[in-house]
Design a protein that fits this description.
Layout: E1 2-4, E2 27-32, E3 35-37, E4 41-49, E5 55-57, E6 62-65, E7 71-75, E8 84-91, E9 94-95, E10 99-104, E11 107-110, E12 122-123, E13 128-134, E14 141-147, E15 153-158, H1 160-163, E16 167-174, E17 180-184, E18 193-196, E19 202-212, E20 228-234, E21 238-243, E22 246-248, E23 254-260, E24 267-269, E25 271-272, H2 287-290, E26 297-301, E27 307-308, E28 310-315, E29 319-320, E30 332-333, E31 338-343, E32 350-357, E33 362-368, E34 380-384, E35 390-394, E36 404-409, E37 414-421, E38 432-439, E39 443-448, E40 452-455, E41 461-470, E42 480-485, E43 491-493, E44 496-498, E45 507-514, E46 519-529, E47 535-538, E48 552-556
Parallel strand pairs: 3-10, 11-13, 12-14, 21-27, 22-28, 29-31, 30-32, 40-48
Antiparallel strand pairs: 1-6, 2-4, 4-7, 5-8, 6-7, 8-9, 8-10, 13-20, 14-19, 15-18, 15-20, 16-17, 16-19, 21-23, 23-24, 25-26, 26-28, 31-38, 32-37, 33-36, 33-38, 34-35, 34-37, 39-41, 41-45, 42-44, 42-46, 43-45, 46-47, 46-48
Length: 565
């Protein structure tokens, strides 16, 4: 085996004649198993099309590339501070898409066929483990567990939402005779989760099957080699949420964690996702839809020997304690920029906030719930000016799976009244939300057209970049210079200008060319505005399963050796 831990490799030019055919760039559709336990080595099979061996980009982990085609051995550090890494195959002709590989704390197992009937269910004796499986050919997978009366089991499936599997899974708890006791299919996006506490001791079967995640005219069970999943079964602590769900950069501290089988008052530390040391490979949020501050980062909360984990947001401004509905119903005054977090634990609960504004200020208010994996539909938001006039009233039903975003330019000075409520005034201990209020400032966001680019000699490659300008009424960013940085020797891409108006205001293209030196590695795209003051932003890749990055994989194909340089 060959050990590879790599983020950039310079290749020597391959020697071949014009008649020889170059190997195509590898493709990678998924990995199996699709995750592993911290502190272990995992044997993984790559699925896709490739000429073996290939090179591997695997930030944060070591990879052994086997001589057997498609086989990798991944070593996971015991203290790896992330819930997911991204693995990419590449060669001198290009790179595959990066695919997710989940990281957990529990022991791992693999599904064993045949297990399609309750009476032939795979017996699970360890009730704190993650089982890696695949739904093949409209298969049904069944797993038998033994529970005591009053013992709470969390059965959680990761498939579509975190792994990108093209499946809409259904999870059931059934008796050995097939009688359905509980069922779930969409607890976390399209992925199911069941929390089951039997009144009597006995053997119970977790039954899993799937429909296609995409629209399909046929209503029938489906499966396939890429219908991979991870089924976590735990009677121990299982973490799903934290309060607060945001912390201030520079003083991360501790947060209260919530879920099941967690001792009351449990608090865990927040660390930057991916570790303390800054890294270009660290996953980020997409800022556009949520109106996230570009300087925000992702924090990670994880308990040793606990199932589950939670991401929180690290923000560059204050985080204040949320409203305690049980203690006081007085409005909470918040001063932008600020983030607060709460939950609608009681029926008929309405959370009231006061936001001091002056004439001309534009406040941006975001209320998030579904992206926190809360079952709460985005709450209703009502904003009134200091005179009591309603200036914004948002009913979330038409956009039930999107965050609620309010943008308002103050026409009078004073305390604006913001009320947030669950639309049916229902309460639940898992109705978490996060509220951010900040003043609109001159800023911009860059998004690339993809996360990789291939450049060949004598043929420039166009790489589009989208620009989103954020400017208050009395501000102007002016032109934005956009350039590729971290380029290797031999690859050039001239900077381009995005003007305030016209065809370049919203989109430009960088033109990459190469003199023929081979390269594979990561580059970045940077934008610079100089009005009203210098402001630099790095472009982010399109979000994939909620993650995006500030690096793009560049492949510069070598000039054939029988052609002059």
């Amino acid at each position: 085996m060959q050990r590879i831990q790599i983020s950039a490799v310079i290749f020597s030019a391959a020697v071949f004649s014009c008649s020889e055919v170059l190997a195509a760039a590898p493709t990678l559709t998924h990995l199996f198993p699709a995750g592993g336990q911290r502190g272990t080595k995992v044997s993984v099979t790559c699925a896709g099309a490739f000429t073996w061996p290939v090179s591997v980009s695997s930030p944060s982990v070591d990879v052994l590339v086997s001589q057997e085609s498609g086989k990798l051995e991944i070593t996971i550090p015991p203290d790896l501070d992330t819930d997911r890494i991204w693995i990419r195959l590449f060669n001198e002709q290009g790179a595959s898409e990066a695919v997710p590989f989940q990281i957990g704390n529990l022991k791992e197992a693999v599904e064993i066929e045949p297990n399609n009937l309750p009476r032939r269910a795979q017996v699970v004796s360890n009730l704190n483990q993650t089982i890696n499986g695949v739904i093949l050919d409209a298969d049904v997978d069944a797993f038998a567990v033994t529970l005591n009366a009053g013992q709470t089991l969390v059965a959680n499936v990761d498939a579509n939402a975190r792994l990108g599997s093209p499946m809409d899974a259904i999870l059931q708890v059934v008796t050995p005779d097939g009688f359905v006791l509980a069922e779930n299919n969409d607890e976390v996006a399209l992925d199911p989760r069941i929390v089951f506490t039997p009144k009597k001791a006995g053997t119970f079967v977790m039954r899993l099957f799937a429909f296609p995640a995409g629209q399909d005219a046929t209503i029938a069970l489906r499966g396939g080699a890429n219908y991979v999943y991870r089924l976590t079964l735990s009677t121990g602590p299982f973490i799903t949420h934290a309060l607060p769900s945001a912390v201030t950069a520079g003083g991360l501290g501790m947060v209260d964690v919530f879920g099941w089988n967690i001792p009351p008052g449990t608090r865990l530390p927040v660390v930057p996702l991916g570790g303390e040391n800054p890294s270009q490979d660290r996953a980020l949020e997409s800022v556009a839809e949520l109106r996230v501050h570009p300087d925000s980062r992702i924090g990670f909360v994880n308990g040793p020997h606990m199932a589950g984990s939670v991401r929180v947001r690290i923000v560059p401004f204050p985080v204040v304690a949320g409203i305690s509905w049980a203690k006081a119903r007085d409005p909470l005054t918040i001063f932008p920029p600020v983030t607060t977090a709460g939950r609608f634990a009681s029926a008929h609960q309405i959370d009231d906030y006061r936001i001091p504004l002056i004439v001309g200020q534009t406040v941006v208010i975001t209320v998030e719930s579904r992206n926190l994996e809360s079952p709460l539909i985005p709450p209703e938001i009502r904003l009134a000016d200091p005179e009591g006039k309603i200036v914004f009233d948002l009913d979330p039903v038409p956009q039930r799976f999107l965050p609620s975003v309010v943008s308002h330019r103050a026409t009078v000075s004073g305390d604006y009244h913001l009320s947030v409520r669950e639309r049916n005034l229902q309460g639940h201990d898992r109705f978490f939300y996060r509220l951010t209020a900040r003043l609109e400032e001159a800023d911009f966001e860059l998004t690339t057209s993809g996360d990789s680019v291939v450049v060949v000699p004598e043929k420039p490659t166009e790489f589009p970049v989208t620009i989103q300008r954020r400017t208050p009424a009395d501000s102007n960013l002016g032109p934005i210079s956009i350039e590729a940085i971290d380029l290797p020797v031999g690859v050039v891409a001239s900077a381009v200008i995005s003007e305030v108006s016209g065809p370049t205001a919203a989109k430009v293209s960088l033109s990459f060319s190469t003199t023929g030196a081979a390269f594979s590695g990561k580059i970045r795209v940077k934008g610079t505005a100089n009005m009203p003051q210098k402001l630099e932003r790095l472009a982010r890749t399109p979000a994939k399963l909620g993650d995006c990055f500030e690096t793009i994989w560049l492949t510069a194909v070598a000039l054939p050796s029988d052609q002059p340089n």
